[in-house]
Write a structure and sequence with these properties.
By secondary structure, the chain is of the alpha/beta class. The protein is 28% helix and 28% strand. The chain has 11 helices and 19 strands. The chain has an 8-stranded mixed sheet, sandwiched between helices. A 5-stranded mixed sheet has the order 10-11-19-18-14. It has a 3-stranded antiparallel sheet with strand order 4-5-8, with no helix packed on it. 42% of the residues are buried.
Length: 421
Amino acid sequence: MEYFEFLNKSVTPYHTVEALKALFDAKCGKNARFFERGGALIAVRVPKQICSDSQFRIALAHTDFPTLKITPNPDAAAAGVRTLHPEIYGSPLFTSWLDRDLGYAGLLAYELDGKLETKLIRGDKLFRIPQLAVHLNRGVNQDGLKVNPQTDLNALWTAVGGKERFVEALQAELPAGAKLLDFDVQLFDAQPAKFGGFENEWIYSGRLDNLSSCHAIAEAFAAAGALEKDFQVAAFFNNEEVGSETREGAAGNFLKSVLENVAMSAALDSSTSLRSAQNDKSLSSLVCSELASVLSSSFALSIDMAHAEHPNFVQRHEPNHAPVLGGGVVLKMNSQKRYASDVFSNARFKMLCEQNNVPCQTFVMRNDMPCGSTVGPAISASLGIPTVDIGEPMLSMHSIREMTSVADHEKMTSLLFAFWK
């Protein structure tokens, strides 16, 4: 199954970008332009004809997920084993990382013949963070397991007497004569994606938040042909789990610079009002002015996973706004504007669902619980584009292994294809 292959390959944001590029190369050919920035990627398809009323149809997602990143100097030894000290990235559910088969992967930066080079790696060894036995922690089942992220999440990676330092294992991944300068390596759930449930109606996998959204966007973008007059944009950002304020994040200038680049190319290649405007304006300032106007009348779907109602904890959900697995695409709303959805974008989204027979559910967080966020507010605020936050319902969000519905993923992909058809 292509979806499972995508999930299994995308073990870091950098690997996610490579998996997305491979999907696009196989299915899009030269029918789109691609812009890459580290763990972020933007795909753009230009319409058949640029018109004065051309708009952007944009779908947004993020490539990162909560994880444990290996620190620059991670090594320690105790009780006959060597351990690696991680740094917390995002907000992972700590207990889910215990007693799991953990892989390691990431990006290495090195010097070779005076040049700076990079290399993606994915180790073939398994690490582990073993839980303390119940005999040594007698009250754990009554009091609950409490994990100290500083002391309890060190990963066991080899026995004393093997490699002295983890950096030596990374150095061995490089070409002869290369010198390792830095690395961005993280742990991940090494168990492959699987079907679950008695009827295989569910999906169990690591990184579903937010790789499920990335895959739905990519599949729909690849399947859609060029539109008559509207631009199609698929944007995949890094660092959403830590606030998006990076050069690869949604709060950076990546999408804005790409759209300006595309608009400038359109102005140079077409005979529309962009090209034939009054001579006292430079083309670049004209493009910026036109782009702001175009974006305000365009539309963006911010796609991130949504909380499904948990059957064992129904009291934790807002009673009238608790989506369920298999119930369809979720519209996410928040009056504190943690989501970009507003009355205008909500209405457009509901019309899209109705016109294409896609079931829609609504999520609102309880008033006595804080609400998470997405890339939507950052993009909507910086570009002035009407944006709606939507997603597939899921359970075990931010666990090392999460759970979604097969039917909901199909519905999301179908909705995105309709958005771009």
